[in-house]
């Protein structure tokens, strides 16, 4: 059985370490804030100038002035600090963020990432994605394993090479999908490795829905 969005976020939270400064992208990655282990000190950073984000607020307790880079309402912590967007990007570009957890449209077997536009569709810009993948020490992608097309067919999102405009080349360290977890040797020649399967999902099912070449090192 494939993982839900919440289960994918919970698995991504296992990549957090005590003392980390972490940036969470739009979509499924924002859910990771709800699964930070008790007792672990993690500072969540947002490109719009906030450091120390708490979990999503309960319904009725939202503060419209407290939002993340994706304009979702969030909560603050006793350690929260606020600063300009330029200072926020200075943290990213200066290599001070330990981990970024992002969504994606496509990931290639060599770690290339496409997550900001589809040709022919109007977009407002790349946002902070290019800075994040270039300046952050480690990049984890959380996404659904395949794209669902309008005609009901499915297209793989783990590819030999991305065919959408790239956000960055050789930048992704790990991919977590609803079917499993892959590591990528983005700077070497180790390629992509399947290291974990979602509950009741088989390796054959993953291979049938993956264009990228990968080895399996399970359990």
UniProtKB/TrEMBL annotation:
<comment type="similarity">
    <text>Belongs to the 3-oxoacid CoA-transferase subunit B family.</text>
</comment>
<dbReference type="Pfam" id="PF01144">
    <property type="entry name" value="CoA_trans"/>
</dbReference>
<keyword id="KW-0808">Transferase</keyword>
<dbReference type="InterPro" id="IPR004165">
    <property type="entry name" value="CoA_trans_fam_I"/>
</dbReference>
<protein>
    <submittedName>
        <fullName>3-oxoacid CoA-transferase subunit B</fullName>
    </submittedName>
</protein>
<dbReference type="InterPro" id="IPR012791">
    <property type="entry name" value="3-oxoacid_CoA-transf_B"/>
</dbReference>
<dbReference type="InterPro" id="IPR037171">
    <property type="entry name" value="NagB/RpiA_transferase-like"/>
</dbReference>
């Amino acid at each position: 059985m494939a993982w839900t969005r919440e289960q994918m976020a919970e698995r991504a939270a296992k990549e957090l370490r005590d003392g980390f400064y972490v940036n969470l992208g739009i979509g499924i990655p924002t859910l990771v804030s709800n699964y930070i282990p008790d007792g672990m000190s993690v500072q969540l950073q947002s490109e719009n100038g906030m450091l120390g984000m708490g979990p999503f607020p309960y319904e009725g307790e939202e503060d419209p002035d407290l939002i993340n880079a994706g304009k979702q309402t969030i909560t603050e912590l006793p350690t929260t600090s606020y600063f300009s967007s330029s200072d926020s990007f200075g943290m990213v570009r200066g290599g001070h963020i330990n981990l970024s957890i992002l969504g994606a449209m496509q990931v290639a077997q060599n770690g290339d990432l496409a997550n900001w536009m589809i040709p022919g569709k109007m977009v407002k810009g790349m946002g902070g994605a290019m800075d994040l993948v270039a300046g952050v020490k480690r990049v984890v992608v959380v996404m659904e394993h395949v794209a669902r097309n309008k005609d009901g067919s499915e297209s793989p999102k783990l590819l030999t090479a991305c065919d959408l405009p790239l956000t960055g080349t050789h930048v992704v360290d790990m991919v977590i999908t609803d079917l499993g977890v892959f590591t990528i040797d983005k700077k070497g020649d180790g390629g992509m490795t399947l290291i974990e399967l979602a509950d009741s999902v088989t390796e054959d099912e993953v291979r049938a829905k993956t264009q990228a070449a990968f080895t399996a090192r399970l359990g």
